[in-house]
Specification:
two-stranded parallel sheet, homohexamer, two-stranded antiparallel ribbon, Macrophage Migration Inhibitory Factor, 25% strand, alpha+beta
Chain lengths: 69, 69, 69, 69, 69, 69
């Protein structure tokens, strides 16, 4: 019965990897809390990098700045 | 003044049906809680099926597995 | 299979009214989109008025200001 | 370490303005709460107008109705 | 840099189990997507059973009905 | 008409500081995007430190580990 929302930027967000996230999160909730997998909902949001901010910057700029530091 | 977020997969998510969800949810909050419709916000997220997990599987696979059981 | 999150301030948020919101939202999704009620999840968040802002003010102050206008 | 989610309709949601929102929200959390900008996450969701309801109507219709009132 | 929100009802939601969820989700994102754990944020919301609806009912009633079926 | 959700841990989360966050976020949306403050909603969630994970650890442990590094 849990609900899990995963927000990630698009790198490596293939259907295969999304399926791994869904099964991995569901198994974790079964193992740790004894939840019923049949009513465990996982929603993945792929967020464009211009919509993701870190350190006060869009994440692409944050990465450039950090790697050039 | 309430805020409601509705997450659904794309089946039947036409503009007409979205408008029905918006009016239906708003009327419900007015009727049950006496809320002011003018400040009731409804946000609908249409989530692709590869991004929705149920029973540890992407929902398309979950449906196939269930219907073949 | 939908997921609905309802955020409201505490006025009238009794268990009875919450149950009405849960059944009302679920019925709406069944009627408008043909969703399966058994996998429709509704989560209600009761948000304290000091944590809810409208018009740039905590909602209690917003209400006072409006009613005295 | 805060997490901020900003949901807006598409008007004026250019990359430049999104960058201003990200820096503005981050600076606010630094100034008011003393948060560390390096672990402050901001996620912006641009929501299509047919998916945004206000006053029981999709927001485009709400605006038309109000401007014609 | 991912953000994960986990919503659960209170059963077994001890600090120890929450710590296991946090480490498990973070490891999963590192393993599947190569994310940086230092900027992976996990927020757990414990939701009271009267605020969680399933099958059109508050979840306590849903469980009673199912177990008596 | 925007909706903003701010999630923070409890340090310094006084009513006065929450009011500053509400006005600051609202002003930012007015200044950057020309939004109407009267329909700008801000919801603040104060999240207990045991419910907030960073670097794979509950945030209290993450802070201890970092400060002793």
């Amino acid at each position: 019965m849990p609900y899990v929302n995963v927000k990630i930027t698009p790198e490596n967000a293939t259907p295969e990897n999304k399926a791994k996230l869904i099964s991995g999160v569901t198994n974790l909730l079964v193992d740790v809390l004894g939840k019923n997998p049949a009513s465990t909902v996982v929603v993945i949001d792929v967020v464009e990098t211009e919509d993701w901010g870190l350190g006060g910057l869009p994440v692409e700029e944050f990465r450039k700045k950090r790697s050039s530091a």
